[in-house]
Structure formats: C-alpha cells, structure tokens
Design brief:
Helix content: 40-55%
Structural class: alpha/beta
Strand order of the largest sheet: 1-7-6-5-4-2-3
Distance between the termini: 58 Å
CATH architecture of the largest domain: 3-Layer(aba) Sandwich
Number of helices: 15
Radius of gyration: 22 Å
Number of strands: 12
CATH topology of the largest domain: Aspartate Aminotransferase, domain 2
Order of helices and strands: HHHEHEHEHEHEHEEHHHEHEHEEHEH
Largest sheet: 7 strands, mixed
Bound molecules: pyridoxal-5'-phosphate
Length: 398
C-alpha cells in the first residue's frame, strides 16, 4: 500500500472479510464489547493494541480502520484514535511526560495545547521552554538532561508560521528527545512529519481529516511500536476513545481529503493574493506569499501552502468587527478544515486569553481576521470578501 499515492490510499481503506466477501465501505461496528468462544483469545486481547477485539474502550473494528488509515497516510507504524484532538494531545503528553520532566515547545501554540502545558507546569512540576518554530539552535540551547519532548506544529494558528521540521527534529533526536508534531493544519496531504524525523504526529481530526464540520475526533500516529503501545494503554485508561460512529464519519470524510486539500489551497491562493492588493488590508499572512517569513522554508517543505490564512485590516478592531458583520457567504464560526469558509476575529475569540503584549508577540493585531477557506467557487468567495471590504472603505470615506 505504501507505494501508492495518498489520493489512492485515502480511497482504499481497510475492508474486513465477512463470510467470504468484504463490504466496499467500512461498516459501523456499533457495539461496546465482543463475545469469545475461547477464553485464551479473550485474555490475549486485553493486553495488546493489535489483538482480538474485547471491549470498545480498548479497540473497535471501525476505530481500528480509522487508525490504520491515518497511520498509512502519515507513514507511521500505528495510531491511536480519540474522541477529539485534545484527547489525542493530552493522551500523548500525559503518557510521555512525568513530574520533573522538561518540555521544549514552539511558541505560541494552539490555545488548548498551551493550556494543557501550562497546567502540567503549574500542577505537576513539568518545566516548559518556548522556542521559535524554525530555530534548531534554540532547541539545542534549551535541552536539559530532564528534557523529554519537543512539541511542534507544522503550520501554526493563526499567523501560519511553518516549523523547520527537518532541522528541529534532527536536533531533538541528537539529544535523545522525542518530537511530537501537531499536523492538523497541513494534513498528511501537505506534510508527513515522520518523513522529516518526527516520532509522534497528532491531529485534530475534527478539521481537515473529517472535513465536513460534523464530527469531533483526534488521532495520534507513531513512528515506533513502543511509543504506540505506551500511548495506547494510557489513552484507554484515560477514556479518550472515540465512538464507532464518530470514527466512521472521519473515515468517510478522509476519502476525499486529497481532493479537498487541493481546492482549499487553490481558493486560499486566490483570496490571499487579491486581499494583499486591497487598500483596506494592511497585511496578509499566508506562507504561499513571498512576503511571509516562512515562505522560503514552506516552499521547500510543502507542495502547497494550506487553506488557512490571516489578514490585518488597516482600520483596526472597528474594521475587523464591521468586516465580520458584512460578510454573507463566509460564516462567523470557530474551527477550520471543513468544506465551508469560516472566519473569526482571534483577538476576541480564539486568542482572547492572551494579553496585549502576548498578542503583539504572536503578531496578532486588533484588526486581524483568520480565514479557514472552504471549497466553494473562489470567485463567489472573492465577491463576498470584496463587498465586505468595499463597505469598510465607504465607512472610512476612502
Ligand atoms: C482544533 C485543534 C486542536 C484541538 O482539536 P479538538 O478536536 O478541537 O479537540 C488541536 N490542534 C490544532 C492545531 C487545532 O486546530
């Protein structure tokens, strides 16, 4: 399977044999447990992530099909699916980090992850050092004997900085430190961090993997059996397991992931380049633009530049709020990675816990708008953005 292209692998999911034939589409095994004829098989299934199905919190055929499909796309040996992205991230952090350990992380991180690390630090004595996303020398300088993890994001939210995965992962490996990469924004279509030296890849499957804004999910993919087994046994104890229907919705959505990513990226290029030329816009942040600080690195690392970008309105906070009111097609909503175009104002929503200094350090302004571009026709999206922007210009008397 691994010699096939991602487009082909996404479509051809594992198919279980049932009485001599196989269902084309993976069935939903809506059961909490399994019965046994042989007590020895029952006993064996309890202790292994790849053994007989025993109990739904340990494993389920629909959930395992999702795990195998994501592991296949990411080039990992195995995966653990969870009920949300934070379920995957917390399972990995809690399974691999102990009190007194040290974590080096790229900053700023996705808000939920930053909170999880802050909590580990305050309540469990885990030290955390933040470094820039493309500075292997800073990782080398930060590493201590107690350093256990390096935590990165392929493309960060909302300013879309791209991590120097080869440089950062190699530095961690030399120091004997495990690297975890949140690959939610890139998806395995744009980047497979294990190919660049990562040990664990985490996803919010709520976003691009499922792709239809109808399910919450998470997945952690592993480069080694040992890491897989450690996190699997922790995640099932934590109760992070997804239900079979959520796993099935994610699997179903993933079959069109490569097709969707192509359109997300193409639409983003249209919007980002045209917004950059509009007088109401002071800056556009997307690694596909030569003005973005990550452009050169992104062009080397990724075949395309992703479906999320941000832009700053020259009119600041007032213009940001007015833009939100004026768009008609784009929806004012959290999340990303679905077929619909969604916008939000980071300073008052996703990043509201940052004070003015932290916002400025993250490059987020009062007039910054984040756009998660959908798969609509790009001209319809541009017409919507343009009418909203032209309305702003009218207000300013420009
Ligand atoms: C949404 C998101 C998460 C959290 O995932 P949930 O499915 O909401 O729990 C983690 N990382 C990134 C980059 C995300 O966008």
């Amino acid at each position: 399977m691994s010699s096939l292209h991602p487009e082909t692998r996404a479509v051809h999911l594992p198919r279980p044999v049932i009485e001599g034939s196989r269902p084309i589409s993976m069935p939903i095994y809506q059961t909490s447990g399994f019965v046994f004829d042989d007590p020895a098989v029952f006993a064996d299934g309890m202790g292994r992530p790849d053994g007989a199905y025993v109990y739904g919190r340990l494993s389920n055929p629909t959930v395992r099909a999702l795990e195998e499909a994501v592991a296949g796309l990411e080039g990992g040996v195995a995966a653990v699916a969870t009920g949300s992205g934070m379920g995957a991230i917390n399972s990995v952090l809690l399974a691999l980090v102990s009190p007194g350990d040290h974590v080096v992380a790229q900053g700023p991180l996705y808000g939920g992850t930053a909170h999880a690390l802050a909590d580990l630090s305050e309540r469990f004595g885990v030290a955390v050092t933040y470094v820039p996303e493309a500075d292997p020398a800073a990782v080398r300088a930060a590493v201590r004997p107690s350093t256990r993890l390096l935590y990165l994001e392929t493309i960060a939210n909302p300013m879309t900085q791209v991590a120097d995965l080869p440089g950062m992962c190699a530095t961690a490996r030399e120091a004997g430190v495990v690297t975890v990469v949140d690959n939610t924004f890139a998806s395995p279509v744009l980047c497979r961090p294990i190919e660049h030296g990562a040990d664990v890849v985490v996803h919010s499957a709520t976003k691009y993997l499922s792709g239809h804004t109808d399910v919450l999910g998470g997945v952690a993919v592993f480069a080694s059996e040992e890491l897989h087994r450690t996190v699997w046994s922790y995640a099932l104890g934590l109760g992070a397991t997804p239900d079979p229907f959520a796993a099935w919705l994610t699997l179903r959505g993933m079959q069109t992931l490569p097709l969707r990513m192509e359109r997300h990226c193409a639409n983003t290029r249209v919007l980002a380049t045209r917004l950059a030329e509009h007088p109401a816009v002071s800056a556009v942040h997307w690694p596909g633009l030569p003005t973005h600080p990550s452009h050169e690195l992104a062009a080397k690392l990724l075949p395309d530049f992703g479906g999320v970008f941000s832009f700053d309105l020259a009119g600041g906070r007032g213009a940001g709020e007015e833009f939100m009111r004026r768009v008609r097609l784009a929806l004012l909503a959290p999340s990303l990675g679905g077929v619909e175009t969604l916008i939000l104002h980071p300073a008052t929503t996703s990043h509201r816990s940052l004070d003015a200094d932290a916002l400025a350090a993250a490059g987020i302004g009062e007039g910054t708008v984040r756009v998660a571009v959908g798969i609509e026709h790009s001209e319809d999206l541009w017409a919507d953005f343009r009418q909203a922007l032209d309305g702003l210009a009218g207000l300013d008397g420009a």
